[in-house]
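[Meeting: bench + compute handoff]

Bench side (C.D.) handed over the final construct sequence. Compute side (W.E.) agreed to return the predicted structure before the next meeting so the bench team could plan truncations. Sequence as handed over:
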Amino acid sequence: MDTSILLPRWNLDNLQNGLDIEKFENQLSSIKEKMIELEEDSKVAALKPSELLTLSQMIKQIESAESFYYCLTTEEVEPFQLTSIIGSISKLKSHVYIAISNLEQLLVTMNEAQLSEWKKSIEEPNFLQELEVEKEGPSKQEKVISTFARETLSGLEDLYIQVRNHIKVRIEPDKEASFAEAMKMAFSHPEQSKRTHAFKELNNTLESQSNIFASIYNQMTGIRLNENKVKEVDYLDESLKSNGISKTTLDAMWTAVDSNIQELSNWVKKKEKAETDQNSWHELMTSSPKGSFSITFSQAVNEITTSLAAIDPDMSEFVKAAISKGWVDAEPRTSKSPGGFCAPLIQEGESRISLSYDNSLDSARRLAHELGHAWHYKQMDASPSLRFLDDALEMTMAESSSIFFETVFIDHVIRNAKEAAAKKEILRSKIGLSLNYLMSIRGAFLFENEFYELRKKGQLNAKQIEGLSLKSQKKAFGSTLRDYDPFVWIKYVQFYQANVPFYNYPYSFGYLLSIGLLELAKEEEHFDRKFQKLLSGTGKLPLEQLFKEHFHIDLSQPHFWERAMQNIIRDIEQYNHLQ
């Protein structure tokens, strides 16, 4: 089969003038001129319906430009150009926030008759609903501080990416590897000795650069804490609100995990006895289990579409269309970061997916994961709005959709494995994912939560952060491993996301929710329609409320989460039976 079909490159030509950076920058400048004009108008009078519609269109254009920027980061584009582009986009978003803030302040000063007359002139119901919500929210001072924080955090995220991408790891005496290459070798190389060597050299390099990363992370956390102080809110409460869940629900989920931690730990200990080279955090998290299971890109697409068709034929057809229309870039390139991403283009009704496909089960799983994100974006309402997607998208919902896709795919592959050895290998990989979502990510949550508490008292140096990272991992894994990774906080971009603090527990939440949803798919009539409605409601109501509305389940109660955990325990039992 033709290699170009096996490893497709995405189509960027129909987006933002393709790879013509000069035209793209000119387009951003054109948006800026219109935004400055709207911002000035917002200072003197309440924006008219036509102006609000223009503002909504500007928001959609800025969102598309930002998604296109993320695509450019994987292409051969000069770093200074990328820095300039993301700086321009951040500034455009600031203009939007200021214009909306000006409008809300003017609405507050109107008398009842004036406000009633203005409302009658607005035809888009979303606009009134969004402004009503905001009217009860932050003060003008808080909004100015939030705008400054967003712009500064975006710059610090870009700085993190630049510093990380400039890292060179000396894997061999005469060979240097980029950060992405070193990560891939450390976690995906088929030879254990090569993985161990790459991991060691990568950590040595990160240790030499740890002070700059500690400075960036301290600054980002400090900015958020100061913003929370002005707003008089708790840092975790803000995160929970933006994720559409309550503290009670988060606690119910973690309680279910904790009550089954012994079974997970026992599996780790048993695996250690059978495979003495697998008793460290590094080897536990590797995506290259011993075995020969291989799956080409075209085979992965076929298995993903087949697995989804049994649940919702629309999902299956959507995946086929995404591949055929050039939404996916699967070609491995040194310019690509580890992992993958899905960039939403809501206005265009499309997405773009980036990953480095290597014929492994893990890369096939990642493809399914990112396609799940694209499916979620497709369900979301594209009607005019005065909110950015960043402000409406709950990461808990986003990760539920993506992990649902990958779990459906993996379960399908396990069921259809013809040989016991292959079934065992894939099941082992799935259990490893469970450990990642429920133990490794739990460690990231514990780390970030305690870091925020300590950061209130002052900055932490690199050594203190490393110690906290090790302590958190040890607690999350129940002290079952020989050693842990002191540099997790540097390796994963989720810690440096400008718009999403605590980008960890949404993965655990999404994983268990997706397992629970799969159980509901076997029982619920019209599950496909209910799931689509759940996703399409993103940002309109909190996730907890949407779930109760469509599935009549209270996520703050332990039963749903306990049932999901029992599915994972059954995977372990099935694996042990195959021993």
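W.E. noted at the follow-up: Residues 252 and 558 are 5 Å apart (CA to CA). C.D. will use this when planning the next construct.
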